[in-house]
Automatic annotation (TrEMBL):
Belongs to the IMPACT family. Residues 18-122 form the Impact N-terminal domain. It comes from Agrococcus carbonis. InterPro entries: Impact, Impact_N, Impact_N_sf, Ribosomal_Su5_D2-typ_SF, UPF0029_Impact_CS. This is Uncharacterized protein, YigZ family. One of its GO terms (cellular component) is cytoplasm. GO terms for biological process: regulation of translational initiation.
Amino acid sequence: MARPTIARTASAEIEISRSRFLATAHRIGSLDDLPELVRAARRAHPDARHVCSAAVAGPHGEASRSNDDGEPASTAGAPILAAIAGRDLTDVAVLVVRWFGGVKLGTGGLVRAYGGIAADALDAAGRLARVPATELAGAVPIADAPRIEHALRAGGYEPALDYAAAEAGLRITVEDEALPAAEALLAQLGVRHERGRALLLEVPGPR
């Protein structure tokens, strides 16, 4: 099963020994999205000392990247990456902007600061599970479409109808584990259908 991802962009902020840390978690399509996010953070915060980052991408989190941006090796990018991996997330980037306050935190302090604020941003971003799903497609007479749509919505589905001259195209996306029940309902409603594309459906919750 594909790893979950975050539900929304979210930020968290903390001040430690006069250094300010601002973390932002973003959805990404691939690691190629990370450089532009970093450039945007630099433009938004030109007075910051560091813009450290990490990202994980791919259905199973198979690709990752991190950058310490001038902090001591493995004290910034690695703990940000660990915060993502520790939540088993993918298609996520976290940027942590630091304004140096004049007090050195030491390697342990930096690891705790970067990892902790990254974790806070990820927790604020929420979580979407990705579950295997299948699109079911069929056609129904236009006169029957409202009744069938109502019955499907009452059953917890979200049908999409495409009206043509003689009939309405019908599509619903169903989690694979619920396919037998969905197909039984379509049969009960007299809807001939075919299984279409295999998809990943994003749903709230840990799963």
